[in-house]
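for the recovery benchmark. tokens below, seq after
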């Protein structure tokens, strides 16, 4: 089974969000005292590590090759 980097990037976004949400819930329940600034930095870092992957996907979608179906794709119907 092949895992694509876009999938890994989406998982990282979910992990970053879960770090922030779990920290907030633990603080709200009084079970722990986690500095929310630190939780936001940690969650943002997890996602920021994969920003080059996201940028690559965006660039491929915008300036894709003729066969990849990017927005500059041309055929007989849209000359």
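predicted aa per position
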């Amino acid at each position: 089974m092949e895992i694509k980097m876009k999938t890994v990037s989406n998982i990282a976004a979910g992990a970053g969000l879960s770090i922030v949400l779990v920290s907030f819930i633990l603080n709200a329940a009084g079970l722990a005292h986690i500095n929310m600034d630190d939780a936001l930095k940690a969650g943002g870092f997890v996602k920021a590590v994969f920003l080059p992957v996201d940028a690559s996907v965006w660039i491929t979608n915008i300036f894709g090759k003729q066969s990849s179906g990017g927005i500059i794709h041309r055929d007989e119907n849209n000359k």
